[in-house]
Design brief:
Blueprint: H1 7-22, E1 29-30, H2 31-38, H3 52-64, E2 68-74, E3 78-83, H4 97-109, H5 114-121, H6 130-142, E4 149-152, E5 163-165, E6 182-183, H7 189-217
Parallel strand pairs: 4-6
Antiparallel strand pairs: 1-3, 2-3, 4-5
Helix pairs in contact: 1-2, 1-4, 4-5, 5-6
């Protein structure tokens, strides 16, 4: 698969796909709306704090790659953006509704188990059970124009293996999963460290708030 997206490109493309499905009446998106979508605190991992300049720079790069197009005339003044990544007349990539929902969630949240994907991707496409997710993951892993997903090595103590998208580049496979490509979760240590840092920051802020509350209460 020749297509490779940088992390910020993946976030922008995924947000455009998501909003096209969930809020079609507000799609295409303005720069402000897309920035808010990228920084959304729900359905995102990691949570980002991008400014409009950074989003605009990434959009410009995606436009040069013909993965995003900008449109004027929506309201007469504001430029709006729509993806050309897949399922359009401009792209050879065509996914089923289930495949697109699963791939979008992997782009938005990172590696996930089939059970997690069923719960989270159901907002984008009806998924009745985990077997439907597993079937779609298999198709995404064996497509002639792919693969688009890979199964990670199961973590110790975990019942299910996680899957990751391959749109950020190839991930070296191991031999412990003969029916699907597999890779150690250690490939994603930087993302895990980022999440842990955020959790520590939140814990520190909560502790400060508790101290302030106790200080105020002492004067009452």
């Amino acid at each position: 698969m020749a297509l490779t997206l940088a992390p910020l490109e993946a976030r922008l493309v995924a947000c455009l796909i998501e909003k096209e499905i969930t809020t079609p009446e507000q799609y295409p998106l303005s720069l402000n709306a897309l920035t808010n979508a990228c920084n959304q605190k729900s359905n995102r991992d990691p949570v980002m704090e991008l400014d409009e300049a950074m989003v605009q720079q990434t959009l410009d790069g995606l436009c040069r790659k013909h993965l995003v197009s900008n449109q004027t005339g929506y309201g007469g003044r504001v430029t709006k953006y729509q993806h050309r990544f897949c399922n359009t007349e401009f792209s050879k990539l065509q996914f089923s509704a289930r495949e697109l929902a699963i791939l979008c969630e992997l782009l938005l949240r990172g590696p996930q188990t089939p059970g997690e994907l069923r719960a989270r991707a159901s907002r984008l496409c009806p998924l009745n059970d985990v077997s439907e997710v597993e079937a779609s993951l298999h198709q995404l892993s064996v497509r002639d124009d792919g693969p688009f997903v890979v199964r990670l090595a199961r973590e110790p103590g975990k019942r299910e293996s996680r899957y990751a998208h391959l749109l950020g580049g190839d991930i070296a496979a191991t031999d412990d999963a003969p029916d699907a490509p597999s890779v150690s979760a250690s490939q994603f240590v930087p993302e895990m460290q980022h999440t842990e840092a955020l959790e520590q920051r939140v814990a520190a802020l909560e502790a400060e708030v508790a101290q302030l509350k106790a200080f105020v209460a002492s004067f009452q």
